[in-house]
Design goal:
Layout (H helix, E strand, L loop, with lengths): L6 H4 L3 E5 L11 H8 L5 E5 L5 E2 L2 E2 L13 E4 L3 H14 L3 E4 L9 H16 L3 E3 L5 E4 L4 E4 L3 H4 L7 E5 L2 H13 L4 E6 L8 H9 L6 E6 L5 H13 L4 E5 L4 H4 L5 H5 L2 H11 L3 E3 L2 H12 L9 E5 L2 H13 L9 H10 L10 E2 L3 H4 L3 H10 L6 E5 L9 H15 L3 E4 L3 H9 L3 E3 L2 H18 L20 E2 L2 H10 L7 E4 L2 H11 L3 E6 L12 E5 L2 H18 L5 E6 L5 E10 L3 E8 L4 H4 L2 E4 L5 H8 L5 H4 L10 H17 L4 E11 L6 E3 L2 E5 L11
Parallel strand pairs: 1-2, 1-5, 5-6, 6-7, 10-11, 10-12, 12-13, 13-14, 15-16, 15-17, 17-18, 18-19
Antiparallel strand pairs: 3-4, 8-9, 20-30, 21-24, 22-23, 22-24, 25-26, 25-28, 26-27, 28-29, 28-30
Helix pairs in contact: 3-4, 6-12, 7-8, 12-19, 13-19, 14-16, 16-17, 17-18, 21-22, 24-26
């Protein structure tokens, strides 16, 4: 998609306001007021048949009366009049229309039908539609403000390096206000509303191509076009443009009952997390968090490490800084002996020169201590990030000197520095010097941790290309394959599975026992009974052919009594592992193939200790995902147990992702549980599996 595709909306040569008002406090009046006030160089055409002039500009009775076809039209009128206005814009050749009016898709089926009619009309004419139910668009770089937000009056605009694209007008205004409150300039503030046509993904693509934008903030309630957002993220990573997103709400697909336990584990929100992480987009909780971190990103800091140095004039603050650093996962840098000696030479003998560095109250008598200590520590290769905590300062403290020295250090070294100062009299001089300053250590260290982690995520190597694979799914109606067919499908595509045979008689059970070798497992095979152990249809450690035959007879009769389909009895090799894991996959209606990996066994749904990945991903990605689980400490071995063969488990997960991606939607879900993993070098093997063909109503899953 060309980045200039939406230029007619973001940088139009001419704008018509249908429903224009002379009152700048009305929706139809504000865009005209804003554009005149903020330097829009294009032509403005108010349309209102009741007035000859509006805000000093000639007014026209209709779109047809204009001396030219405007590039952009802002539709402020409501209801059927808005629908008619969109149709007139399309017929006249307008390139883009922003529909402010509400009462369409957000109100229900009837409104959605009218909204779709507007979209069809616009698309037939090649016109792009923004909204409806939108607060509009604002580009403070050009003064093209086709919106009515009161926030632009409450907090005066200033052009700057931040772009905001939001589905919600309220959230776009909130992010704008918070950023301006922190003294940051904002260029783009765009709201997509109902997204009947243009989505956040498309607008984000256009904004990302503005060379002056150095930070992109998104607010999402759904992700209608994930492929466009993924393309935007890929381009943003190429030009080192960080994207920070707030995701709220649920997609329609995520609200539906999942057709397998993998569906419940890979719920919509976890899948969104995985999607954003996969594409290097950092997710935060709200616009407050976006604004809090913005300054650090705009400084251009891209730390290569995450080791922290804590400096304070209070021993207690040093301790609290160390605690908070641990909370956010920032390790304290181990300073070299030479560094400690250099610091000790600058501080009084009772000061602490290890990390955290306690300058003590000596700062009161020597205002140059910050300027002495910071350069000494900066030379240490272990020092990646710096945190200065000033819990109290007042009369006698030369805070201006502290701030100047800190600013000089930052400018000289380029190292990230965050300051915590709750006293306004202390914080103000640091802010005046352009230092990232926060109210407390949680905010400051949270931002530094985010910056380090997001930088690592953006610099992560691109995912490997999926190898092509012809995936064969057994023909038949939608629904679950039986266990044998499921395991056979996996084995055929490179997933290690347990040796087994499906038998239909007691004699075949005997023969299978001899072919496989003791000990074996006997399990009923029926698509109607996924959880066989709950019905007494699993027997372990069978040591003789007679036991195998007896189990066959017993299970066969039990299935007849239950009235379920009898595909046969499975005789499988008995395998043992050090730990039971699960690997699952499903085809998400929005994001496509999704893979889940985590703790397995019978309690998988209850514990839900798992991570979500989107193909393509590498074995290293699986390792990284497993390290986030509650069971992560077990992977390296505990209390004398050997480390687990995580590499083998990772290969199983990658193979499952490859199968799902190449199935092209023909597989709805796969549940591999348990996947038995041995010690390093012992490998991994899938013992039980269930594959669901696409198109299932999900009724089968309700009994699982």
């Amino acid at each position: 998609m060309s980045p200039s595709l939406l230029s007619c909306a973001l940088n139009p040569h001419s704008v018509a306001i249908i429903g224009a008002s002379d009152n700048i406090h009305k929706i139809g009046g504000r865009p005209i007021h804003y554009m005149q006030r903020h330097g829009f160089a294009g032509r403005i055409y108010p349309i209102n048949p009741q007035r000859e002039t509006i805000q000093g500009i000639a007014s026209y009775g209709s779109l047809a009366a204009l001396p030219e076809v405007p590039e952009l039209a802002l539709v402020v009128v409501a209801g059927d009049t808005a629908v008619a206005a969109v149709a007139e814009c399309a017929a006249r050749g307008v390139k883009a229309a922003v529909v402010i009016a509400s009462g369409f898709g957000e109100t229900g089926p009837e409104g959605a039908a009218v909204q779709q009619q507007m979209v069809a009309t616009a698309r037939a004419a090649g016109m792009r539609l923004f909204g409806p139910n939108t607060q509009g668009l604002a580009n403070f770089g050009t003064g093209a403000i086709a919106g009515f937000s009161t926030m632009f009056i409450e907090v005066p605009p200033q052009d700057g390096p931040v772009g905001i694209v939001s589905q919600s007008g309220g959230m776009s205004a909130m992010a704008y206000g918070l950023l301006r409150g922190r003294g940051l300039g904002v260029r783009h503030v765009h709201a997509t509303g109902n997204e009947a046509d243009v989505t956040v993904g498309e607008l984000a693509w256009a904004v990302a191509h503005d060379p002056d934008v150095r930070l992109l903030l998104l607010y999402l309630e759904n992700i209608a076009q994930p492929e466009l957002l993924a393309a935007t993220a890929a381009y943003a990573r190429e030009r080192d443009l960080p994207i920070i997103a707030v995701k709220a709400g649920r997609t329609a697909g995520g609200q539906k009952a999942a057709s397998s336990h993998t569906g419940s584990l890979a719920n919509e929100d976890r899948t969104v997390d995985a999607f954003l992480r996969h594409h290097g987009i950092w997710r935060v909780r709200d616009p407050h968090a976006q604004a809090l971190a913005a300054e650090a990103y705009l400084k251009g800091w891209r730390p290569t490490g995450r080791r922290l140095v804590v400096i304070s004039n209070s021993g207690a603050s040093c301790v609290m800084g160390a605690d908070t650093a641990d909370d956010v996962g920032l390790p304290l840098a181990q300073l070299a002996p030479a560094t400690q000696a250099a610091v000790a030479a600058k501080l009084p003998g009772f000061a602490t020169t290890t990390n955290p560095i306690d300058i003590t109250a000596a700062l009161l008598s020597n205002s140059g201590l910050f300027g002495d200590v910071l350069p000494a520590v900066a030379k240490d290769p272990a020092a990646d990030l710096f945190f200065i905590n000033i819990p109290v300062a007042g009369a006698g403290y030369d805070v201006d000197a502290f701030a100047r020295d800190t600013a000089a250090f930052e400018a000289t070294t380029g190292k990230p520095v965050a300051v915590a100062a709750w006293q306004e009299s202390v914080a103000a001089p640091f802010r005046a010097q352009g230092i990232a300053t926060y109210a407390n250590e949680a905010q400051a260290l949270g931002v530094l941790a985010q910056l380090a982690d997001h930088t690592a995520l953006m610099r992560k190597p691109s995912a490997p290309t999926l190898p092509p694979m012809q995936v064969e799914v057994p023909a038949g109606p939608a629904g679950f394959l039986n266990e044998v067919d499921s395991l056979t499908l996996l084995a055929r595509h490179g997933v290690p599975t347990v040796p087994l045979r499906l038998v239909a008689t007691a004699q075949q059970a005997r023969e299978a026992f001899h072919a496989i070798g003791a000990p074996v497992v006997a399990k009923a095979c029926s698509p109607d009974v996924p959880h066989k152990s709950e019905h007494g249809l699993v027997a372990l450690n069978l040591a003789s052919a007679d036991e195998a035959a007896a189990c066959f007879d017993r299970f066969w009769q039990k299935m007849a009594t239950m009235g379920v389909a009898r595909d046969g009895i499975i005789i499988a090799a008995m395998r043992r592992g050090r730990h039971e894991f699960m690997v699952g996959a499903r085809h998400d209606p929005v994001f496509g193939p999704v893979v889940v990996v985590g703790d397995g066994g019978k309690n998988v749904e209850a514990l839900q200790d798992c991570a979500v990945l989107l193909p393509p991903f590498s074995t290293q990605d699986v390792h990284d995902a497993l390290s986030t689980l509650r069971i992560a400490p077990l992977l390296a071995g505990v209390r004398g147990d050997p480390p687990l063969d995580v590499a083998a488990l990772a290969e199983v997960a990658v193979a499952v992702g490859t199968v799902m991606a190449n199935a092209n939607g023909r597989i709805a879900s796969m549940d591999l549980n348990p996947v038995l993993v041995g010690a390093v070098g012992e490998g991994a093997v899938v013992v039980d599996a269930l594959v669901e063909r696409a198109g299932s109503s999900g009724l089968e899953a309700q009994n699982r």
